[in-house]
Specification:
By secondary structure, the chain is an alpha+beta fold. It contains 3 helices and 8 strands. The protein has a 4-stranded antiparallel sheet, covered by helices on one side. A 4-stranded antiparallel sheet has the order 5-6-7-8, with helices on one face. The longest helix is centred in the N-terminal third of the chain and has 36 residues. The protein is flat, with a radius of gyration of 24 Å.
């Protein structure tokens, strides 16, 4: 090989290595930012729930998005009673709604009833939420026709509140 070829190869390898390292660092930083955004505000919500409700131990916090977003907090009282708290994220004026787990249908009961009604469907997830002051279970699944379905059932008795289904335009 002549000198020109060696220089060109060295320049190419150094450039490629630099771009690769910068890309990897960028992806790591991006991943960390996305993951921290998923739990943003959980610490404030935890403090708010402990100070404003009877919940003293927090087991889990998730986020539910609708017109208004909520943190849904699973926790226990001093008497070891399990409760759910719906904490508004954007509105400090709105009150925290707390319900006892024994007053609502469990996730397992909702799933069992859904499985009876939709035997060939594929469940994605079941999460509690709040839509227009109604507490609901949000079920997301793919039905037998391949549509992606959002099904909202009352958290108290399992009656359907509303349902949306979306079909794919392109396959």
């Amino acid at each position: 090989m002549n000198r020109y070829s060696v220089r060109w190869l060295r320049f190419f390898l150094i450039s490629f290595s630099t771009i690769l390292i910068v890309s990897i660092v960028y992806l790591i930083v991006l991943y960390n930012q996305v993951m921290s955004a998923k739990t943003e505000g959980f610490t404030d919500t935890e403090k708010k729930v402990i100070s404003q409700t009877s919940i003293v131990t927090i087991e889990q916090i998730t986020t539910f998005h609708e017109k208004e977003s909520y943190h849904v907090v699973w926790g226990k009282t001093e008497d070891n009673m399990k409760q759910l708290a719906f904490v508004p994220i954007d509105s400090s004026d709105e009150q925290i709604i707390v319900v006892d787990e024994h007053d609502i249908l469990s996730k397992e009961v909702i799933q069992n009833e859904w499985e009876k009604d939709c035997t060939s469907c594929q469940l994605n997830k079941i999460v509690p939420g709040k839509i227009r002051n109604n507490l609901v279970w949000e079920l997301t699944y793919t039905d037998e026709k391949g549509r992606y379905v959002f099904d909202y059932l009352s958290i108290y008795d399992g009656t359907r509140y509303e349902q949306f289904s979306f079909s794919t335009m392109f396959k």
